[in-house]
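Annex B. Sample input.
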Amino acid sequence: MKKLTSLTIFFPFYNDEGTVLKQIENAYRVGSSITENLEVIAIHGGNSKDNTFAEILKAKSFFPNLKIVDKNDNKEGYAVIKYGFLDASKDWVFYTDGDAQYTLDELPLLVNKQSDTGADVINGYKTRRGDGFVRFFLGDMYARFSRFIFELPIRDTDCDFRLIRKSYLDKIELVSTDSSILGELIKKLELVGAKFAEVPVSHFDREYGVSNYTPFDLFKEKLLGDLKLYFKLKKLEKLGSSLRIVKFSMVGFSSIAIQIGMFNLFLISTNLSPALATILADQFAIVNSFILNNRFTFKDRKFKKLTDKLKAFWKFYLIVMTTTLMQAGIVYLGTKYYGDGFLVSNLFFGLGLVIAFFINYKSQKNLVWKK
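Annex B, continued. Sample output.
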């Protein structure tokens, strides 16, 4: 087993009476095998409705060196983890949830990965999920949305099984007051140059109690929190290129408006099929999209010379036409099986549009306006 120079392990506990002692005991047991300089912190993350704080005090009687951070008046939900990062004093910081849905026996996997890769942040990702279908589905949707919007360097933002080099935590300030702190944490660590690595970890059913969030409340909080987070992060100097997806979306909306307008104009005023109308309508949107993306979305990589613009445009055109043909194929297949009525045509037009949007962004960023 690899070793660390020093390590802080902390847990946020809230309505976790049944798992407090187990988590703290495991922290000392596993942590002592990883480092000779261990610190364990228990955060009381709110006014628990059970005996969580009493259990933390009981653990203190067994482990006198246990640090306690009492946030009985916490109004920031899961963002209480920021106080664990602030109080941690060792070279490395590991934290996980207090509900024991992750096992600390897998912490050495993160330590070994750090030794092998030299990474500054080693993040777990769940190989299975000990939650109901609704929570799994909404959690997976959110993870994909958040990773795409913020271009996060890890696949599972919600996996709170993380080992982080303290010197990088000292370079950032966390300001979120809800569960969007997870996206903020990862993005800000990336912006200050932290290197990331990932390890598959297990996720188990709850042993005690129920989640403090309903699946829909959690999804809504994270979604709204991410919108607020974007405007907070926008103030950072390096964010312009890191969140260019938002600018790309704005350009996309203008092109979509042009494409939808022309698509329906062709349907109403001509005898063109919906699939052919899709292709023709897109020609107007393509020119608009290239000009605006070159000027705004990718302005740090924009083409200035006319010859460079023309070369880039043809590459851009091939990418967009490929996705347009794919979109037309979706419209064709959809209207073939469900009829070519006005509403059905627009439904499959929209479906193809969403798929084309994601493919266009990744392709244009990596092939047209590449670094």
